[in-house]
């Protein structure tokens, strides 16, 4: 009998492939690999329809079995509604428990309907609450369409525009700073800034932000990856790390002074390096994590070495959150062609962290 806490998967944008990849893993029997209950948030009607489509398309051998729990998610007391009785699954044939998060309107594969974006945000809210009160061991997020939430005028807690799971969970958790890290077999890349327009990045590269990012990476590499003395390489912001100040001064004035504080404290970390040479095999072979200054400095390099086998995780949260590396792939929803490997890797990492991590141990 499974006694461990569940892993919760949010399927995200209903018109995308979030439900498809869950159903594919269920069909392959891979949701049982973790020896934990798997809970999934999705619209129950859309999930059934998607399963039927994928069976018809020959993607699934048969329609997986699951148990649906109907919650009044608008009532805000859904945690109380989730009595153990409703969630205990005595039928081992069920691949997962579906927490029904109803859409406002019927889902059409591949077609974004912003009236369904409230339900996408509600999934994140449910996930945050279940992880915060330790009802689930970890959150594993499927892809959402950021533009749909923005067009639906869904805001973050501080009233700013929705920009991603990372920022959503950070604000819900009351944290000032978390770190987006993507990891695959080839490398781990953490980012100082996340979903920011390129023109806004230089202003966000300040000493506090760099210092907090480095500290969170060190702490979580120790706590979540078991590396007591992680070796970290840091990219500069400018070409050639500023070329001695001729191509920008952020390295000299902001980044290196902070990095030297860590070096002086005995941390195995570089000063700012030119990103183009940092991401070469010789350097990558000798480091545990790279810190890049912005999203498209680090992530394209990482994804070119394993899109589909990469996990996105948020460091610095009070709970474990991992995610797929891909987006909504509207072109593939309900048709076949979607790979579920990233979801599987994200579940594996969440499960390993939940097994090892101090985060889920009861507070004493
Ligand atoms: N975790 C997340 O929530 C997340 C991550 C990345 C992008 N997004 C969002 O997704 C939306 C679409 O972004 P995009 O078009 O740049 O990226 P995308 O990943 O949705 O698609 C890029 C290409 O990769 C293919 N692809 C994606 N996932 C695949 C899979 N599992 N198997 C096979 N092929 C796959 C797609 O068919 C497409 O050709 C955007 O709104 C973006 O913000 C969300
Ligand atoms: N940068 C992320 C990626 O490439 O996977 C993606 O935008 C998702 O970000 P969130 O996890 O914050 O939604």
TrEMBL record:
It comes from the Bacteria. GO terms for molecular function: 4-hydroxythreonine-4-phosphate dehydrogenase activity; metal ion binding; NAD binding. GO terms for biological process: pyridoxal phosphate biosynthetic process; pyridoxine biosynthetic process. It is an enzyme of class 1 (oxidoreductase). Keywords: Metal-binding, NAD, Oxidoreductase. The keyword Oxidoreductase applies. Its EC number is 1.1.1.262. Gene3D superfamilies: Isopropylmalate Dehydrogenase (3.40.718.10). This is 4-hydroxythreonine-4-phosphate dehydrogenase. It comes from Psychrobacter luti. The lineage of its organism: Bacteria, Pseudomonadati, Pseudomonadota, Gammaproteobacteria, Moraxellales.
């Amino acid at each position: 009998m499974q006694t461990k806490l569940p892993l919760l998967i949010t399927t995200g944008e209903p018109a995308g492939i979030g439900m498809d990849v869950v159903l594919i893993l269920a069909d392959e029997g891979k949701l049982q690999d973790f020896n934990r209950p798997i809970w999934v948030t999705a619209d129950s009607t859309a999930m059934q329809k998607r399963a039927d489509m994928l069976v018809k398309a020959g993607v699934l051998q048969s329609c997986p079995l699951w148990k649906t729990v109907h919650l009044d998610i608008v009532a805000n007391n859904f945690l109380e509604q989730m009595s153990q009785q409703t969630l205990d699954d005595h039928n081992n044939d069920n691949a997962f428990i579906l927490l029904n998060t109803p859409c406002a309107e019927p889902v059409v594969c591949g077609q974004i309907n912003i009236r369904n974006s409230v339900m996408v945000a509600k999934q994140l809210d449910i996930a945050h609450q279940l992880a915060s009160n330790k009802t689930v061991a970890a959150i594993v997020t499927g892809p959402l369409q950021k533009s749909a939430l923005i067009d639906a005028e869904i805001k973050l807690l501080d009233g700013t525009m929705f920009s991603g799971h990372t920022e959503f969970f950070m604000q819900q958790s009351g944290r000032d700073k978390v770190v987006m890290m993507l990891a695959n077999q080839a490398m781990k890349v953490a980012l100082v800034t996340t979903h920011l327009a390129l023109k806004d990045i230089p202003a966000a590269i300040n000493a506090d932000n760099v210092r907090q990012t480095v500290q969170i990476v060190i702490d979580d590499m120790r706590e979540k990856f078991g590396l007591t003395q992680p070796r970290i390489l840091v990219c500069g912001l400018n070409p050639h790390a500023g070329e001695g100040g001729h191509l920008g001064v952020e390295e000299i004035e902001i980044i290196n002074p902070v990095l030297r504080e860590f070096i002086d404290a005995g941390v195995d970390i570089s000063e700012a390096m030119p990103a183009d040479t940092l991401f070469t095999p010789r350097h990558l072979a000798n480091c545990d994590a790279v810190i890049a200054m912005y999203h498209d400095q680090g992530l394209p390099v990482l994804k070119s070495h394993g899109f589909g086998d990469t996990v996105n995780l948020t460091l610095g949260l009070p709970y474990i959150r991992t995610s797929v590396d891909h987006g909504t792939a509207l072109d593939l929803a309900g048709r076949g062609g979607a790979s579920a490997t990233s979801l599987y890797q994200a579940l594996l990492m969440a499960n390993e962290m939940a097994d090892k991590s101090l985060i889920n141990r009861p507070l004493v």
